[in-house]
Amino acid sequence: MVEQLKMYIDGEWVEAESGETFEVKSPATGQVLAVIPKATVDDVKKAIDAAEEAREKISLMPIPERVKLAYKAAELIKPYIEQHARELSLEQGKPIRESRAEVEDVIPNLLWQAEDLKRLETPVLRGYANPDMIYIVTREPLGVVGIVTPWNYPWLMPSEFVMQAILCGNSVVYKPSSYTPISAIKFVQYLVKAGVPKGVINLVTGPGQIVGQELAKNEKVNGFLLVGEVDTGEQVAKIAGVKKITLELGGNGPMIIMDDADLQKAVEDAVFGCFNNAGQVCCANERLLIHEKVHDKFVAMLVERTKKIKLGNPLEGDTDLGPMNNEPGVQKVERHLEDAVSKGAKILFGGKRAEGFPTKLYFEPTVIDNVTPDMLINKEETFGPVAPVLTFSTVDEAIEIANDTPYGLSSAIHTKDLNTAFYFAEKLKTGQVVINGPVLLWDYHHPWVGVKKSGIGAVGGRWTLEAFTELKTILLKLGRP
User: Fold this and answer.
1) Fewer CB within 10 Å: N-end or C-end of the chain?
2) Percent of the chain with pLDDT over 90
3) Distances from the Cα of 190 to the Cαs of 51, 75, 76, 334, in angstroms?
């Protein structure tokens, strides 16, 4: 059954002003799942106006009342985890086990945010240049916040950012990816049921060139958060003006395997980081840098392990790898592999679209060896189920290869030597360095920071609270008795 879903503006579920719509098709089956409104600029402006009208309402709501909204939303979602996991697998393509974990993570995510808000502390400072002064530092909401999230985690992302912005006392205009708006709409439905006031949450669906661009440049929007590609982030930075922006962009995460590493664990971490969510993760293992002394053994183990990955229907419980989400993503993977092979790389397993499936988005888990720094698969974010293997001989060579990229989101080092681990941690130019784990690691409350072109600002736990608030200092002059 095809769902007919609507946008949410100023407390009402509405169609686009133009009446235009677009279809959402399942990457798993090719079937149309839903028909979604295609917003116009006027729709976006109406949502922004509604948010501006409601900004004082939410900012004046006592923190305990805002916290109750998060707890209520979590309570409402919990009984329907399995239903939404199945919907997510059909809409996004990830295996049901991963979908179930994502929707389950929404619950503690909402609760962590509520608890972080309760404990958000700011300092009280005594004057130094002015000894009779006390400086009381506070945090206030930004006002109207625009939020744009991607298609790879369409439940987790809005639970992390949309609810957090509201908890901070902001009103929100939210645009989900056009590839996965169903999950986002379902999440917003729970916020409405939880009692989020009229105008505080607004959901607008449609193309980024219209919706996202208007959110980024509109002067009534006081803050803007984007999780997406580097090119999109650069466009936002150019048009956003002086509003507070937070950008969590792409990555090209290197996972480095030293010659003293536990190879069995390293192989498992490589498989997880390369093939989880079909490699469509900003912090995926985008590159495997292997010490020359263990290269042959590691690669042989990796190929054997990759052969055991089951590519199939994401709704089946034993499926390890589902389809990729969209055609442009598959074409990028093909382009990177073709470039690498033309320059001397060798595909050891996989390397092409799989046959016998309902859509052409099923791509074989792939291991490619003899990758060199000049290849696109090393230079750019591939964002697909590929394990590219590069070889190095010294620590400094590994660091040079790892850092030779405009990205700087996450990296990993496998070694049994603590000194080596911390040397890499200091030298790798990424916002997160994982020791003896996959590049792909995330938690509810640690700071997530992209350096270089991987982002501006930090998110995660109280750092997201800081992203959605601004500092104010109250100066109090004390008299002397």
Assistant:
1) C
2) 97
3) 18, 10, 7, 39
